[in-house]
Input
Amino acid sequence: MPAAESLETAMLGHLFGSSSWTKPATLYIAALITTPADVEGLVEVSAAEYARIQRDPSDANWLAQADNSRINAAAIEFADPLTDWGTVKAVGLFDSATSGNLLAWQDLDAAKAVTAGGAVLVFQPGALSWKMNDV
Output
């Protein structure tokens, strides 16, 4: 789970500086058709029926694992694709339903083509695993 520049800056300022960081009250999962490199190269699905999915920070929504990661407790299901969305290659974690700050992202093990009238984009429980590092 690469952390975005905005999250890294906030956390480092909180730990080592005089700034204070408050975690977002809401979190949103976005479908990305590019694999970002920090914020550069970020392309989110753009379709009238598309919207980010809200999953607020809580132990009930994000289950703690023995390896110190957090996984999604419930399925994350996007809207029926009425138009072609492209091939989703990653998911992003944002602090807002639109715009906002990218906090982190996760590349998908396998890209998912989302086509008009095709299968809904769903991440089953445990499909998304967020971990700060592999130590």
